[in-house]
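Subject: complex prediction, re-run

Hi both,

The earlier run crashed halfway through, so I resubmitted it with identical inputs.
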Amino acid sequence: MSSISEFYEKDRGEDYYNRLIEEIGGLNGKLNAFNAIGSISEGFPFSVKDNICVKGIETTASSKMLGSYVPPFNATVVERMLKKGFGFLGKTNMDEFGFGSFGLNCAKPARNPFNEKYVAGGSSSGAAVATSILKYHVAIAESTGGSISTPAAFCGVVGFTPTYGTISRYGLIDYANSLDKIGIMARSGDDAREVFDVVRGSDGNDATCTDPDYHDRNTGNIFVIDELTNGASEEVMREFSRLLDSLAGKGYRIERKSLKILEKAVASYYVIATAEASTNLAKYTGFKYGLKNDKFYQKYNDFFSDARENFGIEAKRRIAIGTFVRGASVKDRYYVKALKVRRLIINELAGILKDGFILNPVMPIKTPSIEEAESLDPLTSYKADMFTIPPNLCGFPHVSFTYAYPDGMPIGAQLTAGHFDDYALLGFLKEWESGFKYRFRYDIGAL
Amino acid sequence: MKIGLEVHVALQTNTKLFCRCRNDAAEVNTAICPTCMGFPGSKPVLNGSALSIALGIAKALNCKTREKVSFIRKVYFYPDLPKSYQITQLDEPMGYDGGVEYGKRKVGIRRVQLEEDPARIIREEEYTLIDFNRSGVPLVEIVTEPEIVDPEDLRSFLFELESILYYLGIDIEKELKIDLNISLGRNRVEVKNVTGIRNLVDAARHEMERQKALLDSGKDVVAETRSYNEGKGVTEESREKESDEEYGYIYDPDLTEYSLTGVEFAKPLMAGKIAHDYAERYGANEDTLRELLMFNRDALRLLEHAKDRRSMKSIINAISLLRKYNGMEMDEDSFDQMAMLLEKGGYVGEETVKKLLSGGSIDINVEEVKVEDLDREILELINKNEGLIEEYEKNPKTFNFIVGEMMKKHKLNPRYIAERLGKLLEERRK
Ligand SMILES: [Zn+2]
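This time it finished cleanly. Structure:
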């Protein structure tokens, strides 16, 4: 039974939601999961990543540029959740505009509920923390290059990133439109499935959103790709090998493969992502919404430049890179080539995925401390995404799930399926959860 | 000497190009939404009817079309551009490689593309306002090859182009916004945003003179963007725009590729070619036909209906009269009656047109008057009024008196009477 059904069956008492909000408020000071908390009074609680618009609620994508911005409309995904009776709980913290793997690129970084000295992972940091501390709750999150898998793994929750185009992006503040996928974090595969059924489906407001024929293929084959394990730490590989043994014990056929072109995935991803991001961020010029520049005496170029000083350092870095790679004189060498590489990788991976799942560690390293993560240079930090990027670059559905707790911290694996095999992944999770119990340090709102 | 054009045609669709806002709001900032205001989280969704009209324009300009079209983002910063990028087309436009023929001339069409209009800037002395009603209005940009040879040629080309657009149902009362590219020497000068044919021809002439003067004095023409100052009648240096390098075109990933297979479009109607063909086939004057047909759907309708029933001369006559008396909406049967009356030498005046328009019928049995009888009566009239001929030599208006007198006696076409009178006077002079 999903915790959603369980929640509705239980007697919650009168001031359930007041107590819930109070308790969250108390813990939020320490963990920074929420950027804003709503006024929920009914329904199963759901949170929304702060780059997804909720009408009348401050939505900033953790950026100063959008400080105090209150959208005049609901994202489609929010609209569908509300219509189904879910209760809006609050907006969750994130890296500014989704730019980051550790949740540190924002004013108040979220902290890992298992140990506050550790990162929560990014960019959907707050969504993972909220899911990890709340007994009855699902999180609407979003992934561009691994922003669901990574924080879900670090905080020990289920992270489901569906096939690109299955959930409407209307109301999502764009990072890289051809890569952005709204997804779900939950405490079980069943919860994720129930929410997916509510929010998926075509939408007249998003031209890229479709109603595909879903398949549910589980061939019993699991492929482990060298390029998606190379470079992982010894500790991560030791744990991952145990997972493979355990799955083999359950009857899965594990097969190793090599796919050289995956070495180009990170480069291709960052070129496409920053190229698109640099155009998406062009609209923030300080006079229509969010941060307002009042120096109207300036010439318009100076006015815009002045306002755009307020982007964080990582946003500025990605605008600079993205603007460069699409410039006319180098476009063919970067942007156009990256699109071609993406096409090749899609074809190669689709060929493998029709015969089985691909499994890999979510990150090459164990959850780093905040101090460690802060000391990483940008390139090392980008490379940390090398295992989560391929399915994200290609729009393949994937889930991130916990399989062990070395030293008391969760560690996660990522399972990828072919396009529209979303339910096969959710089916796998159900099977996995029948033999593995997730642990949580908090159970706020338990009944 | 080379002139090339970028012509921007605003389409009168019900809604804007990428959102459902109305496309005809009068009061400023009333037809706006998150999408055309560029709000975070909004997404564009293509208006299919704009796609269909744009395809019609591409086909009418004899362009090749691809199976699929796509859209790109052109990034630049200006207050009228809410997303700081314009959604337009680059490698997969609506049409390419076309051409327009007019008379003996032909100008190549490099590309026809569909794009969104930026917002409207309203400049006041102390401040600037922005009307977002125009933001996202569908525009078709027509880019010609630099094959227009001089200002007169420019006028003829635009006349032909506007006629084609008129017959595609585009409101050409809204003046076209056009960028001119002119090069007399090596370097190309762009004159931006000229409105209306007359200004455009003037701007072209002034810019040519400016470039010629520079070249004659051994100087170089600087490749730059200029603007036309209507009041002063000169082109002036204007703000430097971004270069292609900075536009940094990428595909708009919010829009997919759109297949043109099965997209319906209006069949083009080339009035210029029709005028030419009719002139040849019926031996009519081509200029007169062009004058009547280039911007008049009703004239073409009536002509097509009557072409093999009545003489081309009486058809042209009848259409001219309808234009004079504001009766172009006349139905085909009434028109037929009118043309027949004219063909028989009968008289058609404002009264006749009004009668036909209000559903009445007219007597087309024109009085049969033998030429000899008519001539005899005219001569009698002249002889009766002594000194009339002398008077006529001094004041040709006397002519009208005689015609008027004759029309009191017979229901005849005044032109016919005047024709006979002219002949008789000529004979007398001999
Ligand atoms: Zn709109």
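The mean pLDDT of chain B is 89.

- K.
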